[in-house]
Design brief:
The chain is an alpha+beta fold. It has two domains: 74 residues, Glutaredoxin, CATH 3.40.30; 109 residues, Glutathione S-transferase Yfyf (Class Pi), Chain A, domain 2, CATH 1.20.1050.10. The protein has a four-stranded mixed sheet with strand order 2-1-3-4, with helices on one face.
Length: 199
């Protein structure tokens, strides 16, 4: 399995999941600014991640995590239908990208590419406020357990954890103490440490 990767991009989710699952993989450095032909063949959109596993080619980080969980399972990292935790697992697997991380793409683009006089704008400020309005859902979930699907770490935590790390990198402001403690639990995991160390 080959994972096209750039540090701090969504490919971190895929590496982290592979490390947690003990799934063998190799990485290929990918650049948004100067994508090479092999990367564009895997993902013509030029976005990360891109994963090639034999004849399987996938480009959505949350979908790739689900694929890896199914391929390398059964595993406690995946909550199956019928388990009482399944609705929370499914909800926060999607929430980490659709509600938290995806809107931040505009903030990333503005922070790193916008002219200086356009960095502070109405749209970016709406997105930042919206991000913080959604965090109480994470905080409420943490009152029910240490992780998004109860007291056991699952792939849903990788989904949400990446979004929290992205917000921290973008300096979006302080978060509640329970969320800080949760983020610390996630980033202290050996699998995360191995994944984030990949260049």
């Amino acid at each position: 399995m080959k994972i096209f990767h750039a540090p701090r991009s969504r490919s971190l989710r895929v590496l982290w999941a592979a490390e947690e699952l003990g799934a063998p993989y190799e990485t290929a450095a990918a650049s948004f600014a100067r994508p090479d032909p092999e990367f564009l063949e895997a993902n013509p959109a030029g976005t990360l991640p891109a994963m090639v596993d034999g004849d399987v080619v996938m480009t959505e980080s949350v979908a790739i995590m689900q694929y890896l969980g199914a391929k390398h399972g059964p595993t406690p990292l995946v909550v199956e239908p019928g388990d009482p935790r399944y609705p929370d697992y499914l909800q926060f697997m999607m929430f980490g990208e659709a509600s938290l991380a995806a809107p931040l793409n505009a903030v990333v683009g503005t922070k790193f590419m916008a002219p200086e006089d356009q960095k502070d704008n109405f749209t970016v400020n709406i997105i930042k406020r919206s991000f913080h309005r959604r965090l109480p859902l994470v905080e409420r979930q943490l009152k029910r357990g240490d992780y998004m699907a109860g007291n056991e770490f699952t792939l849903a935590d990788i989904s949400v954890g990446y979004a929290l790390g992205l917000a921290d990198m973008l300096e979006l402001g302080d978060v509640a103490e329970p969320i800080k403690a949760y983020a610390q639990r996630l980033t202290s995991r050996p699998a995360y440490q191995r994944a984030v160390a990949v260049a």
